[in-house]
Amino acid sequence: MRVGIELASWLSLGVGALGAAQSNVPWPAIPKPQSVASTNGPVYVYPSSVRKGLSSGFANNSANSDSALVFQSIGDTYTLDYGSDVAGKPIFHIQVAEGNPQIEVKYTEAFPGLLKAEGDGPFAFANALGATFRVETFNITKTGDLSGYFIQGSQRWQSIKLISGKKLVIQRAGFVSSVDQSPLSSMPGYFASSNSTYTYIWALGPRTQQLVCFPPESQTSTWEITSNGAYIRGQKPATTARVVNLSNYTLSFETMIDRGGTGWRVDTEIDAIQATGPICKYTSNPHTTGHITNPLILVVLTSEYPTGSFANIDKTLLPPNTLVLGRGWSLQNQTSLPGYVLDKFPLKFNVTEKTWHTIRTESPGDDTYTVYLDDRLIAHFNISSYGISDPNPYIPGGIYTSFAFGPWQDQAAYVRNVNVTLSTGENVYSNAMTSEDVLVEYGVQSNTQYVCSDSGKRDRFSWLGDRLISARTVMVGSHQGEYVWGPAEEAFSRQVGSGQIPINTLFSPLDAEGSLIRTTNVDPLIVDYDFDFMQVIYDYWVRSGNDTFLEKAWPRMVMATSYALSRSLDQKTQLFGAPYGSTGTPLSGEKGQALGPANTVSMIIGLERMAEMARFIGDNAAAAFYQTQAQLSRTAIDSLLWNETAGYYAATLGGTGYDLMDIAQVLLAGIGSEQRQASFVEKLSALRVQAGYINGTRFFDTPGIVDVYYMSFLLEGLALTNRTALAQDLLDATWAPMVNRDRNYTGGYWEYISTDGTYPGLDLFTGMSHFWGSYPTVFLSEYALGLRPTKPGYSTYLFAPLPGFKTEWVHGRVPTPAGLIYAAWGYNKQGKIVMEITPPAGLQGTLVPPFAGSYSVGNQQGQSGNHIIAGGATVIIVQE
Ligand SMILES: *[C@@H]1O[C@H](CO)[C@@H](O)[C@H](O)[C@H]1NC(C)=O
Ligand SMILES: *[C@@H]1O[C@H](CO)[C@@H](O)[C@H](O)[C@H]1NC(C)=O
Ligand SMILES: *[C@@H]1O[C@H](CO)[C@@H](O)[C@H](O)[C@H]1NC(C)=O
Ligand SMILES: *[C@@H]1O[C@H](CO)[C@@H](O)[C@H](O)[C@H]1NC(C)=O
Ligand SMILES: *[C@@H]1O[C@H](CO)[C@@H](O)[C@H](O)[C@H]1NC(C)=O
Ligand SMILES: *[C@@H]1O[C@H](CO)[C@@H](O)[C@H](O)[C@H]1NC(C)=O
Ligand SMILES: *[C@@H]1O[C@H](CO)[C@@H](O)[C@H](O)[C@H]1NC(C)=O
Ligand SMILES: *[C@@H]1O[C@H](CO)[C@@H](O)[C@H](O)[C@H]1NC(C)=O
Ligand SMILES: *[C@@H]1O[C@H](CO)[C@@H](O)[C@H](O)[C@H]1NC(C)=O
Ligand SMILES: *[C@@H]1O[C@H](CO)[C@@H](O)[C@H](O)[C@H]1NC(C)=O
């Protein structure tokens, strides 16, 4: 789907719309949601533009999108532009295939990825029910439809290059979509403005949701179980959690290489969140305590590359008949995921394909490793001799390691009869790998729950706290609550006895043992996400009125809150003092060492929301406890962190400096007096860059890029405190570049943006359909239009546009459990503000005019102050 075309037709809709009859209102009719026929079967998406060669220069030219792709010589290449992000399994309708053609296909969100050998990947961060590699090679043996195996998680650009064969004609190439392609106009939520920039920014929210939130069974398994064992195509090796922290043991398995080679890891962290960490602003503690000191080795064994092998194999990286030893995330670097090739062991004999081999890896626990192929020693090495130190410069290591299987890009191999034997002779693991349970054990089973990813293409984990912003985007846009309660139930289903819930988790269903190990292994990452998660549930409850969900989740919420408090509350100061605090905490922060305002505010708001929900549940003792603790911490920030001379809340106890998340959070919680807040907000100007605000004085990470997640908090803080000019300025600076129809446009929100707003900030790694920074969708509905709930289920709500927001008009629909609220406001020909609202019956609204002075309501003139809206009928007020 092309969002652009979509929006254009959406804007011109007048049929069946509200407000069409009024002539003296400045806005066009507010459309009703369009009904769409539900589709069964596969949905195909095709490029909007196809061009021979590598080119980004034709973004708006769709004239040639229907012509066939004709490849006549090796090296012939086509660029396919989808106009905005799509996702799914690649499909090629092959018309002519002469001489065994092979094609190399690349995928990328940002165009420059096509210019790189590895596309915009590899994304070796998570076992994510999607492709790890962004380059795939296909062997074309016949005409007809050829479909890829892996889901490619999000891309706007694709290239296809002939690397072998005589002649190939692809009548059409595209994707079988793995995400919802329903038109945005069918969603209950809607927003438009006289300034189409805002219309388009709003629409980034629901489209990003489609690209990152997945219904059950939509993200397919990445392993296949056969009677010959697990058939594993090239991808990030997936770990078992059945046996952990092995020492002095031998791992043996049988493998049959189908193409290219086979791969495995030993002594590797489970789920690999900590492997030579990604840039992660939440985790800044460099202490090595708790680090895995194990080698985390990655091994790829290549075949002899028989005739017919892929013509594009990188034989420098992977020579034939060679054991390639690596560590880190993979054998290639990708932005902040370093990989290391440590050694290559050429074999003196051929490694045959399509025959069974037995591989034994001995790990006696003294850093030496010995690998045997069919009882012949093929490699012996001491991992510490390579001088690659302990990974994890930023992230505390998990406590569990195990082994994993997964060959390199374009390789494929069977793995069966896996055994682990200790030096004592005891067999501790034995698995024929022929049972479907293997998929759950290794975390590569198709999702059975509603899950939301951080990003379409990468970091395909279900992160807990990143939804603080995006869960509200879901509710004001699609109103598909299953994308809030679904991931919440997934997290609760993996809660362990301590109350801990996984901060990030796989999409795959897990068994009890896998949940326990994998959840525990992400402790103590980002404890404040627990408090953010309680806010997510509150925000969902308020916008859905789903009491049933709240009642069901409540005991688990209490457990998780207790766990988070025990892990993070510094009793001495009442400030947040997590062992590994979030949001750029200083390079210190053992528990007991108090941190700055930002994390403490997460805790405060989390506790206050818990108190409100506890009162609803009838748990008054819990409510009182949460409320009291929140109040103590509020007082602590104001009394311990305020620096009167400098005029800011200090980022650390007894320290100096501040940062923008502290400013945002102080506004969101309303910490301190208005004067202190005003003084603190003045500090923002020093952090201003063209595309928003960058780090204050203490962020060590992602220097020099604008973090759209942080900007979301700041935007809300500015809106909540009626700082309209600053809020609108930020909206324009950070998000307007994302709706420029240039080669970077994806139709989705970006994760980061460069300081000048010209480029998605974190190189090719940047998620360009990333949900965490999606606050503008909420801002535009709740503050620019001005419709926001004040009680669960919108039983009471405000129609209170931000005074002074610059626009000629805005209008839209906000979904509530009682039905849609239609509303609009704008300036009439006389330059007076007109406001109109048509809410469902049963909800009580309070209209707060964004101007001082009087107004008329219907025939009643000279009204002033707030106006109560009963619901069930249209109300129009006109400024006098
Ligand atoms: C090893 O493989 C190469 C490439 O397939 C082949 O040319 C060679 O004959 C093989 N050697 C043996 C001993 O099988
Ligand atoms: C591609 O297909 C041809 C013809 O079936 C076969 O000979 C060759 O081995 C295949 N190559 C790969 C890499 O699968
Ligand atoms: C990845 O980058 C690191 C430096 O950050 C370098 O030491 C290493 O060799 C690189 N790995 C590869 C495979 O190029
Ligand atoms: C491993 O076990 C063997 C046999 O029990 C023993 O000789 C050896 O010292 C052990 N290795 C280490 C590093 O403990
Ligand atoms: C390894 O395990 C498989 C199946 O679990 C078993 O059938 C096989 O005999 C074992 N092989 C060895 C060498 O221990
Ligand atoms: C409330 O949440 C539950 C999940 O706990 C879900 O099954 C149900 O459909 C939701 N109800 C509404 C009205 O959204
Ligand atoms: C307040 O901040 C200033 C720097 O702006 C610093 O010199 C001073 O020591 C701080 N005061 C306290 C009490 O930390
Ligand atoms: C942002 O952080 C980087 C790296 O820590 C630092 O060099 C830069 O000066 C910081 N910017 C501001 C405005 O503080
Ligand atoms: C902001 O304005 C709203 C009315 O739109 C008002 O209810 C609220 O109290 C104001 N907030 C602050 C912090 O001034
Ligand atoms: C629309 O908003 C953008 C910023 O997002 C601004 O640059 C532009 O001037 C506005 N257009 C009008 C007509 O106000």
From TrEMBL:
Alpha-L-rhamnosidase C-terminal domain location: 786-858
InterPro entries xrefs: 6-hairpin_glycosidase_sf (IPR008928), 6hp_glycosidase-like_sf (IPR012341), Bac_rhamnosid6H (IPR035396), Bac_rhamnosid_C (IPR035398)
Leader sequence residues: 1-23
Keywords: Glycosidase, Hydrolase, Signal
Entry's Gene Ontology molecular function annotations: hydrolase activity, acting on glycosyl bonds
GO terms of biological process kind: carbohydrate metabolic process
Pfam families on file: Bac_rhamnosid6H, Bac_rhamnosid_C
The Alpha-L-rhamnosidase six-hairpin glycosidase domain, residue ranges: 440-652
Protein name stated in the entry: Six-hairpin glycosidase-like protein
Organism: Penicillium daleae
